[in-house]
Specification:
The protein is of the alpha+beta class. The protein has helices at 2-14, 20-149, 173-176, 186-200, 227-242, 270-276, 288-297; strands spanning 158-163, 166-172, 205-212, 253-259, 278-285. It has a five-stranded mixed β-sheet.
């Protein structure tokens, strides 16, 4: 604006001093300058508008960047919380895993103990089976030896049986005693001696001597008052004969009087009563080893 004023002033000052040609040149230049000034003003106006748009754009971008920064801050906060939660979860997971590992190890130890006990028990069962088979074999051999030793007396009221893990030697009284007596007859003494020889070679055998009678009440006199007394006295008399063999272990022998209470035949006739009047020698293998194994298994 100052330039335009200066130019106008110069034109007025020198209007009268310059020629017409010069005046037209100045006037043309003035018009051009005026147009240039107008163009400059338009450009300046456009620039001002553009500057306002730029300012608005910058403001909007600034707001957008602010939102981005806030979002980033939120993301960072969420990420931090996520890391904390993950660390906590990882810690809990490790704790749970360790706890499960301990439980599993304890379970494995328990199973190992059970497996060991089962294996030990199985070995003991196998050992028990071997012992039982061995006892059965020995018992069968004993039964044969007894049967062979008493072979001459079989059929004369003497019988040898093997059942329930025992050997039974049944001798009727007609081989051993006279009616109402407990003194063993000579033939019966021979049978008892042969039996004692077999027992002497088998010290691991327990011997039970049982006396039995029929159901007819005892009618004799003296120290015997009943069939029970008579059956007991006969059993002890057999033991005395057996113990004449010094190789016999006395503590392995037991006497028992059964009276008329364990008949093997009806007492309604003489044949049945004769069968019931008997001595039974029951031979049982000692089962100490088997009992110990059974206790260990239990």
């Amino acid at each position: 604006m100052k330039q335009l004023t200066l130019i106008c002033f110069t034109i007025i000052l020198f209007n009268r001093c310059v020629s017409t040609k010069t005046f037209h040149e100045i006037e043309t230049r003035y018009a051009n300058l005026k147009m240039e000034n107008k163009s400059i003003l338009e450009i300046n106006k456009l620039l001002n508008k553009s500057n306002d748009s730029i300012i608005l754009l910058l403001d909007s971008k600034s707001s957008f960047y602010g939102l981005i920064i806030d979002s980033l801050k939120m993301v960072k906060t969420d990420l931090k919380n996520l890391k904390l939660n993950y660390a906590s979860l990882e810690s809990k997971s490790d704790s749970d895993i360790k706890s499960r590992i301990i439980e599993n190890n304890n379970l494995i130890d328990s199973l190992a103990v059970v497996q060991y006990e089962l294996r030990t028990g199985l070995n003991r069962v196998v050992e028990l089976e071997k012992l039982v088979l061995e006892k059965e074999k020995k018992l069968s051999l004993l039964a044969k030896k007894v049967s062979d030793a008493l072979l001459n007396f079989e059929g004369n009221g003497l019988r040898v049986d093997q059942r329930n893990g025992k050997v039974y030697v049944s001798m009727e009284n007609k081989l051993l005693f006279e009616s109402g007596s407990w003194k063993v007859q000579p033939e019966g003494q021979k049978a008892i001696k042969n039996l004692s020889n077999v027992l002497a070679g088998n010290p691991e055998i327990n011997v039970l001597i049982e006396g039995h009678t029929d159901n007819i009440p005892y009618s004799g006199e003296g120290i015997i008052e009943s069939n029970w007394d008579l059956s007991t006295k006969r059993a002890t008399e057999i033991i005395q004969l057996i113990l004449k063999n010094e190789l016999i272990i006395a503590k392995n022998i037991t006497a028992a009087g059964r009276g008329e209470f364990f008949p093997i035949a009806p007492n309604s006739d003489e044949k049945g009563r004769s069968a019931n009047r008997r001595i039974e020698v029951i031979l049982t293998p000692q089962l100490d080893e088997i009992s110990k194994l059974l206790e260990n298994i239990n």
